[in-house]
Amino acid sequence: MTIDFTSHLNPAQWEAVSAARGPLLVIAGAGSGKTRTIAFRLAYLVQQGVAPENILLMTFTRKAAQEMLSRAAHLIGRELGGVAGGTFHSFAWTVLRRYAPALGFPEGFTIMDAPDMREIVGQIRTELGLGKKDRAFPKRTTILGLISKSRNKEIDLAVLLEQETPHLIPYAGDILRISQAYAAFKTRHGLMDYDDLLFNMERLLLERPDLTEFLRIRHPHVMIDEFQDTNKVQARLVRLLAADGRGVMVVGDDAQSIYAFRGAEVRNILSFPTQFPETVIVRLEENYRSSQAILDLTNAVLRGAVSRFEKNLFSRRANGRKPQLIHTVSDQTQARMVVDKVLELSQNYRLRDIAILFRAGFQSYPVEMLLNRIGLRFRKYGGLKFTEAAHIKDVLAYMRLILNPADLPAWFRAVSHVKGLGPKTCSRFCQAVLEGDQAFIAQLAKKFPDVDQAFALINSLRAEKPAPDSALERILEFYSPIFQLRYPDDYPRRQAGLEQLQQMAAAFDDLDAFLTELTLESPDQDDEEMDDHLVLSTVHSAKGLEWSAVLVIDLVNGRFPSRHALEREEDMEEERRLLYVACTRARDYLALFVPSSVYNRFQGGSEPAVPSLFISELPEHCYEEWRENYLGQLHLRHSSRQDQALPRGQKALPGNAPVKSAPRPLGFCRHKIFGRGKIVEVLPPGRLRINFSGFGLKIIQADFVILED
What we know:
By secondary structure, the chain is an alpha/beta fold. It has 28 helices and 25 strands. Strands 12-13-11-14-15-10-18-19 form an eight-stranded mixed β-sheet. Helix 12 links the parallel strand 6 and strand 7. The chain is globular and about 90 Å long.
């Protein structure tokens, strides 16, 4: 069966499909037909006489590999069962299954599943006598997650704890002992976990060059999908299998590398031409998803990147509405504006074709609250719904008891942390409260002081009848130590949800109305009825998806980019790529929301917010700018600022190497009041935007700080 490739592919895709053996790097911009290109490349190779068994295709999911193979088989009219297709891990398992004895394993080895791993870590912890009667000791799942992340990122456990979970640093020594004992246990019993597959595969190829050569001869054509998501060991495996690179083709987009938290290394794709000096680079820049107006903005987002491959996405959809940049008075009015915009868009689009995207799960809570109020169905991806989060349910239980001390489920939740207090006793206590049985209550309070404290708090608040925010402040003061003990592994991350709850409470005068607003939702519907639903999603969960209309919220420094990212340039670069991914999900309409003030838990109120650094870089010709006034109305703002094709005088550089921006005048400085800070932006004339640890972002005159060398 002869295929007319040129009639099915654009010129760049055909160049990638028909290129010589390699090394070949395909930079596939968002929506540019990456999967189609790989499928046609497979078909082209087979049509050129390459045996399917001589092709190795590695992807990040089995589904992706199956789709590519299925498309290629359809093109050539026969199955491609001989292609070694699958994930890195499945390929490693195939090889190790046969050659593991060369590494000292017995004739067979066992791959452990998650329950097996948790059981082993639990046994090790018990044998080492660690964490006895210490409720704050990290859970088995957390320990395993830290071990895995340390291996995938290839950094010491102690360094990982310092960077990502500083609240667990006191347990660093214990976690390291468990990690070492866990590794020894696996070796002793012929066991491997998911991560071992890759590292043992690498070890096998290094120790058995004859086997490495055999695999190279067996698979002279190696194709790697989503190369920007590979970690360090995966990149080394590609180099081992590809030898001089003549048979390797890697496909990916450096601008969509957003999984550093899993160990993904954007440097793998950026340095590919250096690793293989004869690399041919093909850029897929024609976008089949978005209008040109949206692509003009996404291209501008990327121009500020420190290191990138030059590309300029374009679309044949020349007509299209410019993205809207919407400044709202606050993050609370932002929620109302977002919901109003969804209702407006729903006149032209189905709800399932509309998505609200955000950097972190907690940022959608105010929007969820309003959606529940009007009964608009939604599904959330990448984080629990607000009222489903355990720590939020804990706090709401105390608030419910202020209104109804006979609320048995609320009592169960409020005192579930008390050791020794079972369901029967709790039920009897609730009955005693309802009947006014002071003798039993006093008896129970004597035996369980924590119950007495909770009961006293509820009684006090019932008598005072405070406003929701005042009641919540008292409850959080009581709940804070319980919170840290109940969620020792991730309470810093959960804290953001409690801050959002405080902000919501401040908007109400009546506790009953506040709780009703939070907890009253429409009854569940079956999947068929839920078919048309609004999508709420973190950007990470949205990758690979697309919608007709996309609304991105909370585009202020400290939220998007995140507060943590402001301290490190490499983290800021990933945040930029996150915004690029978010914007390229939109087909027809894109809105970027920038609240002018956000809630600050340290001040107990709102504070001015600084628009995201990425937004401030955008040239005005690529968006409409709207501002909310204090009457809650949006007005189009006409700007006098000159359009800038590139931000801050930056010039794009030609060539095949990643583009390097000019050095930025950023670094660290010291202030006599705020201490040491990271300069994140220079604001002429003579001002600096600085992120101070513990104080957040401040704009300071340059004369009042001392720059560090």
